[in-house]
């Protein structure tokens, strides 16, 4: 049971909190008594556990929160003292909330405190910031077991979640971690995420408090430069941010939110995709439900980008700004899909939604329209740039070369869509591995010829030769028809001599003179 003196302290505090004209000399005795209880609740575990289970104490806390809801801080005689007293009550609640979550949830204490915090005009003074910080800690503690969410309180909840973003940056650090810890619990509630992602404040909260910090720290190089940011060494704050974003991007409402951002805030859409790419490609384990949700939005982004690329090349293919937009979205979506293609569930998803043909059509479009580029460098920089078309013939159109290559810097422009073919071929390799039906379908879609023609070095697509050879190996293994098809191409000298041997196959001519392939005894790995 709560000692009478403890309840009396809370009752006296309630009387002061409920009045805007409480005399100054009324606060100090309460501060002394309350401070004693707060310190004891922090240091004495048995005391903390005993009082945390006392409903009467929690009801007294609830009465304090109800009382202050009738108060406008602007009208208080001593607003700072009022905030200080409320902070003491919240500190006590935070300590007890670490032991018991059910009673404060039943009494709706989070809603009562949130309501008052949301409706007050913000001053951003030290005591107000300290109150918000400890309030987040209290909310975090009482939501450990489960999250209590009421749709009617969403506006007030968003108001306190966005508060750190409105605070001057020098004071933001003390708020960010406790707020995000609380939010990490909130996003585990499906209803909260569903309504939150539709709320007008959602983008401000996500951009200011989640996206910008991680992106600035870990996404400092373009995707096509090879070495992407990786979540290998992150702070406690970043770990919470990543946890929150992982929950968001695997929620069924995320796709709708992403569409809205694409229509109304292109830069934010791209930044969100980059962050999602970073998180997805840095994590090894996803369950089937999570994979389904991720693929539902990333596949849609990919298909849209592939169609935009087709239309780009049907036009004059000169708009570099448009090419940069398409290239950015295409490389991000392809990278996510290629990383997730190691999961059987993802491969089944791609095949079910006709992704094989979309991938082959994209590869064909890239093969037809992109030029191959080989850049020779020495210690002084770029020494020689050689460009060829799909047939291996030198590109003689100087305007076309200038639109695809920056000859001053030796860099490849987005108009030539660097690295895209390489990632498409990597995904195809995953799809056809050990799957005869898909191997046959690839032959029917002329993917075999496309992949074979990319078994060469090309600076536009790093590692494309290695990935193509691996894909050819998977297309030929255990598939007699594909082996016969490739053997005929070899007989016509349509394949470079070393490609098949590197893929692990040798040409074989039987007694009747029929040309075929056999698995080499020395397979490159």
From TrEMBL:
Record's function text: May play a role in the regulation of cytokinesis.
Highest taxon of the lineage: Eukaryota
Domain Ataxin-10 stretches: 420-517
Example GO BP: cell division
Keyword hit for Phosphoprotein: no
Keywords associated with the record: Cell cycle, Cell division
Official protein name in the record: Ataxin-10 homolog
Coiled-coil segments on the chain, per record: none
Cellular component, GO annotation: cytosol
Leader peptide range in chain numbering: none
Originating organism: Eremothecium sinecaudum
InterPro entries recorded: ARM-like, ARM-type_fold, Ataxin-10/CTR86_families, Ataxin-10_domain
One matching Pfam family: Atx10homo_assoc
């Amino acid at each position: 049971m709560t000692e009478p003196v403890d309840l009396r302290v809370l009752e006296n505090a309630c009387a002061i909190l409920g009045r805007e004209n409480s005399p100054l000399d009324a606060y100090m005795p309460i501060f002394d008594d309350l401070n004693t209880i707060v310190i004891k609740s922090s240091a004495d575990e048995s005391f903390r556990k005993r009082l945390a289970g006392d409903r009467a104490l929690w009801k007294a806390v609830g009465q304090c929160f109800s009382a202050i809801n009738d108060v406008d801080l602007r009208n208080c005689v001593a607003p700072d003292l009022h905030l200080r007293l409320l902070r003491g009550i919240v500190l006590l609640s935070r300590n007890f909330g670490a032991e018991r979550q059910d009673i404060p949830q039943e009494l709706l204490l989070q809603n009562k405190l949130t309501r008052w915090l949301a409706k007050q005009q913000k001053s951003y003074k030290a005591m107000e910031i300290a109150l918000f910080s400890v309030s987040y800690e209290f909310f975090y503690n009482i939501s450990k077991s489960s999250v209590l969410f009421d749709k009617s309180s969403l506006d007030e909840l968003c108001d306190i979640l966005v508060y750190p973003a409105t605070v001057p940056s020098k004071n933001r650090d003390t708020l960010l971690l406790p707020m995000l810890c609380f939010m990490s619990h909130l996003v585990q509630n499906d209803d909260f995420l569903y309504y939150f992602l539709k709320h007008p404040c959602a983008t401000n909260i996500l951009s200011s408090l989640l996206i910008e910090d991680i992106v600035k720290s870990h996404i400092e190089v373009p995707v096509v430069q090879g070495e992407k940011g990786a979540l290998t060494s992150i702070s406690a704050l970043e770990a919470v941010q990543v946890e929150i974003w992982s929950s968001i991007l695997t929620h069924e409402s995320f796709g709708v939110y992403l569409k809205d951002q694409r229509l109304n805030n292109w830069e934010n859409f791209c930044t969100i995709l980059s962050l999602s790419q970073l998180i997805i490609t840095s994590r090894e384990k996803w369950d089937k439900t999570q994979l389904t949700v991720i693929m539902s939005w990333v596949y849609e982004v990919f298909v849209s980008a592939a169609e935009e690329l087709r239309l780009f090349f049907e036009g004059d293919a000169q708009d570099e700004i448009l090419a940069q937009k398409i290239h950015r979205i295409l490389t991000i979506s392809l990278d996510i899909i290629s990383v997730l293609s190691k999961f059987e569930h993802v491969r089944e998803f791609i095949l079910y939604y006709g992704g094989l043909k979309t991938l082959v059509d994209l590869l064909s479009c890239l093969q037809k329209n992109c030029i191959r580029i080989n850049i020779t460098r020495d210690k002084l920089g770029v020494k020689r740039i050689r460009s060829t078309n799909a047939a291996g013939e030198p590109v003689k159109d100087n305007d076309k070369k200038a639109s695809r290559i920056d000859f001053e810097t030796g860099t490849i422009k987005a108009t030539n869509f660097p690295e895209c073919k390489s990632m498409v071929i990597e995904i195809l390799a995953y799809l056809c591995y050990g799957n005869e039906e898909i191997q046959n379908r690839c032959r029917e879609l002329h993917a075999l010829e496309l992949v074979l023609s990319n078994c060469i070095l090309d600076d536009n697509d790093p590692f494309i030769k290695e990935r193509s050879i691996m894909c050819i190996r998977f297309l030929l293994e255990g598939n007699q028809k594909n082996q016969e098809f490739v053997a005929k191409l070899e007989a016509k000298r349509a394949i470079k001599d070393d490609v098949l041997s590197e893929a692990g196959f040798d040409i074989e001519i039987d007694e009747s003179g029929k040309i075929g392939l056999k698995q080499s005894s020395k397979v490159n790995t």
